Amino acid sequence: xxxxxxxxxxxxxxxxxxxxxxxxxxxxxxxxxxxxxxxxxxxxxxxxxxxxxxxxxxxxxxxxxxxxxxxxxxxxxxxxxxxxxxxxxxxxxxxxxxxxxx
Length: 102
Hints:
Blueprint: H1 22-38, H2 50-64, H3 70-83
């Protein structure tokens, strides 16, 4: 039987979830608020302001990194080389052959 032709309730398939009603959504929100007030759940985090984050990172980069300096350029070059290096087939932990290749 094709995977696409299975019906809900057959073995291997989870039953389709029904949508929550507005009342259920309100109840869940109320329970979440109560748990947050009790300290069981952490408070909601504010959304990331990507534009401000980009500007802050750019300012930090400009203040810290001076590519006119030879040592900074060399360190950046080494870091990029390490990040883009090819990983051996067995991974870095296995440098010896696991079996003889004859």
